[in-house]
């Protein structure tokens, strides 16, 4: 966290002088110069915030990595962030991301950002149906070799296995097929470079000079070159969302501009880095919970039977969006994984002094500070979700239907699950993400037997704290074989 927001010149001012004004929330400074409470927060964010809440209530400010961040913990107060959007800016936070992908034009041209956002409508509606069709075809290509090979048990590492499948399937569905005969080697090389780059991404968001981050500059350059207009023009079967983005980018840049590739890298990053750990955790929890595995398998079998699809040899599954939407058991499993494993936050920069008018107590925020909501706190609230640390595949099912009512202090919550963010910046890929994870799980469960080899429990590693779904703290060994 400290790395994220470093500005050393603020150090003396921020750490050594008093930082309180009347009406401001309680302040927890920590004892480490500059880092403040970063280490406690990163070690176990939920427990740490819980302890602070007990002492200070639902709104307090922490000094973290050279910044003052006010946390709003009460879910009924989350709308304060949306209500005050004219005084709270997303830009400062976005700029860190733009810089990490070397996107410079976005910093100056607001209309470019707006135009790119209009392309995200092609992740919904009819375009989403087409994406799902292409995804299913691409899954067949990725899985069929596994099906042919895996008649005996194969041992694999779950994170690596899920990364490999989801990266290839997502990349091909959005950007199309590589034309070359050595397609497999090219995709493997792209994937390996991509994950090396992603491994350094957290540092890229910091103010640490790029040259101190090993080979990340050259890796980024290589990836961006692989995603240049010229290279991508040779791909076959590109998605509508890609084409619309490319056309939009060509309005602002020369076609050969390096930065177009940087935009594609940023989109590729957004489209896989959360979906992969979500799929990994879903597979992990299903293997650990036989009752969940059997309920989900029953639901799949039932749907395949009712749609006249046989499980015979070869890959033949075809499901529509409506059919996937109707799978409440699978849906509940995916939502439960997102509830347990999402540690993203919504963070805004305070552009001018501001008073948050709350029902309980007004709180003054100071220009130059940050304000954050951290939905993982809501997701782990025992008043809302009984035994929140437990995986319960049917948590989002009630009377055989999707459960959508959750309460706190006897009041119905408007938002009870927020892994995709909130407000105008909410993830535009959320519908595609859930469909993709569902269809990959269906294929995996229909055609393969899966077993955990090593049964030691794993927990999130907090390496992506505030940015999305966490990976586990160690690899998970499992085995799979094609069903006879
Ligand atoms: C489980 C999977 C996913 C999760 C948990 C997730 C979560 C998020 C979150 C938390 C944000 C930031 C929202 C905010 O700041 O309020 C975001 C942004 C974004 N996501 Fe996703 N995402 C997922 C999958 C996807 C997929 C599959 C795509 C594309 C196909 C995608 C595209 C994007 C884009 C383009 C943005 C940036 C939007 C902007 O510029 O405002 N995401 N996502």
From TrEMBL:
Q: Which GO terms describe its biological process?
A: B cell chemotaxis; bile acid biosynthetic process; cholesterol homeostasis; cholesterol metabolic process; epithelial cell proliferation; estrogen receptor signaling pathway; negative regulation of intracellular estrogen receptor signaling pathway; positive regulation of epithelial cell proliferation
Query: Which cell locations does it reside in?
Result: Endoplasmic reticulum membrane; Microsome membrane
A family per Pfam: p450
Chief location category: endoplasmic reticulum
Any keyword Ribosomal protein?
Answer: no
Q: What class of enzyme is it?
A: oxidoreductase
Q: Which residues bind substrate?
A: 99, 274
Q: Recall the GO molecular function terms of this protein's record.
A: 25-hydroxycholesterol 7-alpha-hydroxylase activity; heme binding; iron ion binding; oxysterol 7-alpha-hydroxylase activity
Segments forming a coiled coil: none
For this protein, the Enzyme Commission number is 1.14.14.29
A cellular component annotation (GO) from this entry: endoplasmic reticulum membrane
Q: Which UniProt keywords apply?
A: Cholesterol metabolism, Endoplasmic reticulum, Heme, Iron, Lipid metabolism, Membrane, Metal-binding, Microsome, Monooxygenase, Oxidoreductase, Steroid metabolism, Sterol metabolism
According to UniProt, this protein's pathway is:
Lipid metabolism; bile acid biosynthesis
PROSITE patterns (alphabetical) = CYTOCHROME_P450 (PS00086)
- List cofactor names only: heme
Q: Which family does it belong to?
A: Belongs to the cytochrome P450 family.
| The name this protein goes by in its record | 25/26-hydroxycholesterol 7alpha-hydroxylase
Give the source species: Otolemur garnettii (Small-eared galago)
